[in-house]
Known about the structure:
Largest sheet: 7 strands, mixed
Number of strands: 11
Strand content: over 45%
Amino acid sequence: QVQLVESGGGLVQPGGSLRLSCAASGHTFSGYDMGWFRQAQGKEREFVAGINWNSGSTYYADSVKGRFTISRDYAKTTVFLQMRGLKPEKTAVYSCTVGGGGVRVSRYDFWGQGTKVTVSS
């Protein structure tokens, strides 16, 4: 059974940085993409960043390009999301996912419980 466990969320000031982690287990992730989505209260879940497990190639939402970096530790089956320049309007629950890749929620099969990131002074 696939398990995705996020950590690293918390309170950060506007413009600050935070690093999220997602520990994955229970599956061979070769051939899959892993991604990060976020969902603010009252809004739909939106794509943030994705990474191909095999090649390590990455892709991002336009809104985070240049500020966020997704990476993976292949040996530890862990994915990271380094976030910089956080904005207050982007307070949300960040969730890790694995599946076919891309920017659509429907392309992913398994989801973690999420970790909340609150951007506030």
